[in-house]
Amino acid sequence: MRVVGYCRLSRDEDKENYSSIEEQKIIIKDYASTRNWIITDDDFYIDDNVSGYTFNRPDFSRMIEKVKGGKIDVVIAKDLSRIGRNNGKVLVLIDEFKNMQKNLILVSEMGGTYDVLNDRDDTIGITTWFNERYVKDCSRKTRDHMYSKQKSGRLIMGNYYGYIKDKEDITKLYVDEDIRPVIELIFKLYTEEGLGRKKICDILNSQYNYPTPSEYYQIKHLERGRIYKHPVQKLWSTYMISNILNNDVYCGNLRTHKKKTVSIRGRAVKLPEEEHFVFEKHHEAIISKETFKLAQEIKMRKATTKSTAGTRKRNYIFSGFCKCGDCGFGASGITITRKNSQKGYECSQYRTYGKARCKCHEIKEIDILIHLKEFLKFTKEQYMEEIKKIEIANKTTNPINQKEKLKLEIENLNNEYKVLINQKIKDLSVSTNDYQKSIIENTYKELEKCKTDRIEKLQKMLGQEIEDSEKEKVKELKTAIEYFDEIILSDEPNRYILECLIDKIWIYHDKSIKFELKPDIAKLLE
């Protein structure tokens, strides 16, 4: 019989409510010895600094897979909160252990030891509910604490390029004199000399040796003996310039409450500017408020003229097909604005980093279309008989992946709901008075509503997915020659037809274009 121990620790938990990893191991080993079981250090699965609200934990996932595979018979943990703090998933897991006839033993649970296979679980549902409420309460308290600090201007998160935090008081910022010149230079080039972001990148990359923001953050981390885990960009890019030009920290403002998380372990969402807390004259400014205001006015003026930033999102016919023939990176859609606004394409590396990475490849979409038609006409004339033999099925939407994900999540929630109801019945059956029954009813009422609301929402989403998929009809097979003709005769080719025929479109800085057909078609034409 294979017996293992499981330990988990979350750094944000109240120290009164958890034991350290080593303490958990001692507790588990001591219990195992009373059953004449031997657990070595190699028999432990440990997740350190991982929240119990998620079941996507490295060692926990590996352990459960081995339990399901019959390689582990008994799992011992300190208490149920170490296993998890999501009540629905914990109850389902306990049910799965019973169905597999595998044992889960919690050494310090419900005033004693809880053995899944041998002990009654009349109040285990209440325990899982309290465990989940605890982590939710911690999350709420953390958010409230952060909000309080943000509102009073006491919280500064992350790093600021060009500013140094006071070691004694991290809410205070001081100008980094080594970086001050590059901030001033960027604003000067943008507001006084009228240069765009890409041109500013070219100047910084070729004429100066200032560290980029990510290089700067890496240096600061190393100075504090810490590892910088994010990617480090050694070349200045347009988005770095944008971030600096748009950040009012450089005119002395501290801006907080720019993001918030809406759920436990959820992603942070950006908040509108009217919800930000702005503290003026918080620290020494590097540029004047007038200069910063002028930079925003220039940005708005460019956004309202016929520029790439100002145009609405446009439908680029060849998006995803175009590649730079010189550096191999993708080419993205742009708006060419010399005489009149036209759609075109440009090397993404040149757009982001300027001449430091590639050359100008600006080419009009209409020119690509003209060349494509000529290419297809020539190919059609040369390989007429071979092209006629190629049959291409029209595209049908494949919503299977999304539908299956929704179905699986609904099924899991339904299982959790069923286990929840069964546990409620067990808890009510052992209650001794109306007061206890009332507490149990109220406890489960909130849990049931949470599950049913989520199930209802997902079912609506699934219904919409099915309705959309039914609208798509499978069309008859067409030959490649018909698709060739459709592109040649159309003013704007159908996107699907292009996907059936074209693999890549290579554009070069000398304005030359090379088309690659789909591998299967190209092979038949060889």
Q: What's the oligomerization state? A: single chain
Based on Cα principal axes, name the global outline.
extended
Strand content: 5-15%
Strand order of the largest sheet: 2-1-3-4-5
Number of helices: 18
- The CATH topology label of the largest domain is Hect, E3 ligase catalytic domain fold
How many strand elements? 19
Low-confidence stretches at least 5 residues in length (pLDDT < 50)? 14-18, 306-312, 393-399, 471-477
CATH superfamily of the largest domain: Putative Large Serine Recombinase, Chain B, Domain 2
Walk me through what this model shows.
- This protein starts with a strand and ends with a helix.
- Residues 14-18, 306-312, 393-399 and 471-477 have low confidence and may be disordered.
- The protein is extended, with a radius of gyration of 31 Å.
- Helix 4 (87-100) runs antiparallel to helix 5 (124-152), helix 4 crosses helix 14 and helix 16 (480-489) packs across helix 17 (495-501).
- With 526 residues, it is an alpha/beta fold.
- The longest helix is centred in the last third of the chain and has 38 residues, at 434-471.
- It contains 18 helices and 19 strands.
- It folds into four domains: 3-146, Rossmann fold; 153-304, Hect, E3 ligase catalytic domain fold; 322-394 and 478-525, no CATH class; 400-471.
- It is 48% helix and 15% strand.
